[in-house]
Every structure is written in structure tokens, then in C-alpha cells.
Amino acid sequence: MRLKRRPLLAALASALPGARRAVAQAWPDRPISVVVPFLAGGSTDIAARILAERMGPKLGPQVRLIVENRAGAGGSVGAEWVRHRPADGYTLLLASASALGTNPAALPQTTPYDPVEDFTQIAVVGGGPIVLVVPAASPFRTARDLLAAVRASPGRYSWATSGAGGIGHLTGEFLKLRAGGLQSDRGGPEARGVNRPAEPLKAEHVPYRGGSAVMEALAKGEVDYSLEVLASTAAHLRDGLSRGLAVSSLQRHPLFPDIPTLDEIGLTGFEVTTWNILCAPRGLPPEIAERLSRAAVAALAEAQTAERLTQAGVDPAKPTTPAETRAFLAAEVAKFRGIVQQAGLTLGR
After folding, report:
1. CA-to-CA distance for 177 and 21, rounded, in angstroms?
2. Where are the domains of the chain?
3. CA 168-172-178 angle, 5° bins
4. On the chain, which terminus has fewer CB atoms closer than 10 Å, C or N?
């Protein structure tokens, strides 16, 4: 007996919600992979390991979250890998501002995914400023001194980031643009900090595969300076292996209150910060997304978790729902695209 097509499709459609609920109720029954799109030891990796440890118990007594590093292309390799995994709640991505923000903005031709539409957003985990940092043996004691030297000798100096098109790269290019007109002298109040129209500073960009590799290169003196997230630089700054000259937020960071902001040195209104958000492949059942979001928010609310993240240079985020996380990501992508346009970057085009 042949079933009519339309009643059959209707019957299948009516069964889908029940099937999804059954899957969601059984989840999780095996370990969950949290993909970090960078090498171990960097800011995203640190945050992922802290979060994974505390989220597991929130999801079930035997639930384990296992961190998996898939580095490359400023976070795009790991993000693209996660995009093609099943949307079953067993593969997550701790995305960075590079992977889902600056790469799509600065490298649209080589970033094969839509940062908002191709993922299910779960929760904002945290963030923090970018640090303008030099080796401990560097002759530069202030950001103004470094920028004046770069301005005086175009192309002589080199700077490192976690990858072309990443958050550090975009911040550094924006800094070179803004600092091109920053006076190096300390004239009267009317002259101090004036941004005159000028050519961007010229320095050689050297991309590395992750924050830990950047900091190692910096400590060895392979490059003259870097723009790297606070979580990657914090240990080096505390141990005296590197020296922070400025941060990219509008306020000084409580971990290093002696490091001034770029706004303070004359780059008025300069603000670019990084962030991490927890995502999954597109199509994750809403019930699973909500459970993951609640677990992440509960873990971040723990005093010990917040303290560990803060000490690592990641400021824990305020509680967010999946919908709020999606709105946050969309706004950040729009902001980074605006910066790319303003800075005149043509990477990957």
C-alpha cells in the first residue's frame, strides 16, 4: 500500500520534535570535546581548560569536557573544523575574537564560514585588553618611545601576533594607523597627544601560531614588540620576561595597574578588546544550547573559577543567554568590519 506523500511528510514532521527532545534528554552520555583553535598555552586554551573543568559537574556527575587544540590561520582552522561536526552537543568551540570576529572581517575571501549564521552561540565566557609588549631587554620603556622609534625608522622594526587577520594583527594595524600622526615630543598641552593626518607607521608583521609562540619569540628577542591578549602575556609580565607598555582598553587593568592605556598616551578613544564565546555547530537543539549556557554561566559565577580566569588575564563575562551571545557576536563582527574599513586593510582580497 502506497502512502500519500503529504500525510507521510506531516507525520515525519510531527515526530521530529519528540525525537529531538529524546536526544536532548539522553545527552550527554559521553565526553564532550571543546575545540580550542590555537596552540596549548595561549589565552583561549587557558580559559577553555578552566571552563571545561568546572562545567562538567554542572552537566552531570560523570560528564567530562576534553579540550582539543586545532590551531592554524588565526583560529579559522579550528572554527571551520567545528562547523562541519554534527550538531549533537558533543563538539563545542571556544571561539576567540580572531576566529569569529577579526578573521571574517579582515580575511573575508579566505574565511570559509559566516561567524554568526554557521554556529550556535551558547555563552560569552570572558575577555580582556590587548597588551603592547616588548622583550625585557628592550631599550623602550614607554609606548611613546617605541612608536617614535618605529616612526623614525620605517621598516626597521618587527612585531609579532598570533596570526594574520587575528585580533592582535588587526589591533596592531589600527595602532600603526592611529600612531602615524601621534606626536613624539612632549610639547605644551595644546600639542600633547594630537593626532595629525599622517602615513601609518611601517613595521614588519611576523605571524605565529598562537599566543604562547608569540611570547616565546618575544622573550628570545626574535621580534621587537607584539600586540597580544593579556591572558597570553600575564605570566611573562609577572616573571619579568617581557614588559608591557600599554593596554588597548579604555581603563587600566587591575592585574597590572601600572601599565597605561593607549588612550592615555594620546591615542584618544583607542579601544579594541578580545573575547571568548562558547559555540557549537549550527543547528544545535535549543534544549542542549540552554543546558550548556546554564552550565557555563554557573561555572563562571563560582568565585574560584572567576579568580583563576582573572589571574590568567581573562575577565569573566556577565551572565548571557544564547540569544544575548548571538547579539553580542553580531555587534562585534560589525565593529571589526568597521575598523578594517577605517584602517584601510585589504588582507586576503
Report:
1. 52
2. 29-128+274-343, 130-247
3. 145
4. N
Instruction: Tell me the pLDDT of the chain (349 aa) as tens digits.
Output: 444 555 554 455 455 555 555 556 789 999 999 999 988 987 789 899 999 999 999 999 899 999 999 998 878 999 999 999 999 999 999 999 989 999 899 988 878 999 999 999 999 999 999 999 999 999 999 999 999 999 999 999 999 998 888 889 889 988 998 998 664 433 333 333 434 446 789 999 999 877 888 999 998 999 999 999 888 888 899 999 999 999 999 999 988 999 999 999 999 999 899 999 999 999 999 999 999 999 999 999 999 999 999 887 789 999 999 999 999 999 999 989 988 887 777 775 5
Burial class (CB in 10 A: 0-12, 13-18, 19+), 78: buried
Packing angle, helices 167-179 and 143-152, rounded to 10: 70
> Domain 130-247 adopts which CATH fold?
D-Maltodextrin-Binding Protein; domain 2 (3.40.190)
| CATH code for the part of the protein at 29-128+274-343 | 3.40.190.150
Fold match flag (29-128+274-343 vs 130-247): yes
The secondary structure of the chain, three-state, reads CCCCHHHHHHHHHHHHHHHHHHHHHHCCCCCEEEEECCCCCCHHHHHHHHHHHHHHHHHCCCCCEEEEECCCHHHHHHHHHHHCCCCCCCEEEEEEHHHHHHHHHHCCCCCCCCCCCCEEEEEEEEEEEEEEEEECCCCCCCHHHHHHHHHHCCCCCEEEECCCCCHHHHHHHHHHHHHCCECCCCCCCCCCCCECCCCCCCCEEEECCCHHHHHHHHHCCCCCEEEEEHHHHHHHHHHCCEEEEEECCCCCCCCCCCCCECCCCCCCCCCCEEEEEEEEECCCCHHHHHHHHHHHHHHHHCHHHHHHHHHCCCEECCCCCHHHHHHHHHHHHHHHHHHHHHHCCCCCC
